[in-house]
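Worked example 2:
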Amino acid sequence: MSASALDTGRLLAVASAGLALVATAPSVPAQAWPAKPIRMIIPFPPGGATDLIGRLSAQRLTEALGQPVLVENRSGAGGTIGAELGIRAAPDGYTLTFSVASYAVNPSLYKLGFDPVKDIQPIIQLSQGPILLAAHPTLPVKSTRDLIALARKNPGGVNFSTTGQGTISHLAAEHFMSLAGVRMTHIPYKGTGPALADTVAGHVTLTFGNVFATLPLARSGKLRAIALTSAQRIAGDPSIPTLAESGVPGYEIVLWHGLFGPRGLPRPIVDRLNGELNRVLKSRDMAERLEGDGLTAAGGTPEAFGERIAKDIELFRRIVAKAGIKAD
């Protein structure tokens, strides 16, 4: 073999070895990340329960990653403005979106500029919890079965408050009426405070409210707890049954918080964030923050969170279509 042929063979061998090393080496973004501050978009105004949980998550990630995780509130259109901003960001791990269960409602109510399943990379579901169905003490019902019997006897005669047209509390009520085969009258309010205030005052006889705000009113006797929308009872008051076990089999609607990134986010970054946040969820301060809002830690894999989002989107689409719900 000629010297030139030998040189060519050596060059090819060196090139092949180099390619093999490149193929097996970790990606540069995964090695370097995070090398600068990370932006966490919260698609809601500052100060609410969602914002507080998001900020605590950002603080704990800052400690775990060694880079600041900076919260940016971008509210509007039920959270779709902030969500789209995060989805359109570069998939480099420096823009994350903190979201809630209403993300799964929006595809049924708004014309979105993105695919809510295919255009995201789920990272982790952080929390889970129910809505509480509660009645004014003058309403002659003490259980779900009592309520169903009363509503069937007097169609449309029982009215209920929610946090607004097209909100999860509204969809939870419509799902209940559909599965229970009853008709009640919806009284929408602009938020939890006004809805509960009028229910406590007796202007409305029933409410579908978050546990954080509604359970203390039930404990004080101002309202009567009837049932929970989740599949399991809550540790905060295990005496309250679920709708599924007290007359509405198959019923489940869950409130949640979660974190996702744009489609194409490198898997090493996804796994790092998922691992760090699963550890955060085991901390006492995070558990107390969630329990204070009537929630419990969820955790789990990115795939499990993706399945939850897709499942909820389909459920809410069916509810919205059957009830003919329109956004305000």
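DSSP finds twelve helices and twelve strands in the chain. The first strand starts at residue 38 and ends at 42.
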